[in-house]
Amino acid sequence: MHDEYFGHEHVTVIEPHGSLMDLKLKELWAYRDLIMLFVRRDFVAQYKQTILGPAWHFLQPLLTTVIFTIVFGKIAQISTDGAPPFLFYMAGTIIWTYFAVVWTDTSHTFTSHAHIFGKVYFPRLAVPVATLLSKLMAFSFQFMFFLGFLVYFKLRGAELSINSWVLITPLLLLMMAMLGMGLGVIVSAVTTRYRDLTVVVGFGVQLFMYLSPVVYPVSILPEPYKSWMLMNPVAPILETFRHAFLGTGSVGLFRLSISAVIITLILLTGIMLFNRIERTFMDTV
After folding, report:
1. How far is it, in rounded angstroms, from Cα 74 to Cα 76?
2. In terms of CB atoms within 10 Å, which of 34, 115, 188, 263 comes out highest?
């Protein structure tokens, strides 16, 4: 899309993507007000007509953390590399949840918004971008909740080693957002033809969680499996996040760099499929 001026008339010309990798970032910026409306809609609608409302932002990670602490910490007695089990599981839960909800929600982009896409034009990537931002708002509340418990345990004498790696927390979030969006738009593109694959997404997210070091540290794995685990792009992010705030886990720029490359390839593949399906999806949705 581009704008042209003929005398005093403002004409908007809508054109197809010139390339499957065309992000049209300038166009997304032009529709930033619409994106923020989507963000507000997603954030408000999530807890509209609920009893506890926004309190679920705090209860959900808290209840999950308590269950993980009891099941994996007390009963299974899985090592947490010396970190307080409650903080270990909460750290993994909040950053994993951000990735999981972005992946899940963006996977419904085409099927959930077909009624809008068929009536009015706007850059379709505005929807998954809005999802990233709305879920980032939810994460910010959960992150502050986590920091509150971090201070509490520190005052109680827990041995925590918060270090300079906390400075790259925004980068870790960006990587999780990119991966979630990349996987989500791939699923969204494929499910325009194969609707039953939407059922697989929930199972896939749960399976991927247990294949990632969310409820266990990489250090407990045997050496052959440890090397394969670090090829999982989520693993170095989780390990680095825990290391930054708890002082446990392995960390390294090389492992993060490999994750960044894998995540970038997944995101680019997703955008390419998204742009391709965007041209014809109204014929199949």
Report:
1. 6
2. 188
Domain membership of residue 220 (yes or no) is yes
SS3 6: strand
Residue 94 structural domain: 22-283
The single-letter code of the amino acid at 257 is S
The whole-angstrom separation of Cα 162 and Cα 147 is 11
79 in a structural domain:
yes
pTM, entire model: 0.85
* Per-residue pLDDT at 283: 46
Position 245: which residue type?
F
4 inside domain: no
Q: Do the domain assignments include residue 15?
A: no
**Per 3-state DSSP, what percentage of the chain is helix, strand, and coil (rounded to 5)?**
70, 5, 25
The letter for the amino acid at 179 is L
Spatial separation of the C-alpha atoms in residues 13 and 4, rounded to whole Å: 7
Q: Do residues 161 and 246 make contact, with C-beta atoms less than 8 angstroms apart? A: yes
- The CA R_g of the chain, rounded to the nearest whole Å, is 21
Could you read off the pLDDT of 34-86 as tens digits, one per residue?
888 888 887 776 666 555 666 777 888 899 999 999 999 999 999 998 899 99
CB atoms within 10 A of CB 101: 19
DSSP notation for 240-270? HHHHHHHS-S---HHHHHHHHHHHHHHHHHH
> How many domains does the chain fold into?
1
Spatial distance between the Cα atoms of 134 and 140, rounded to a whole number of angstroms: 10
- What is the amino acid identity at position 109? T
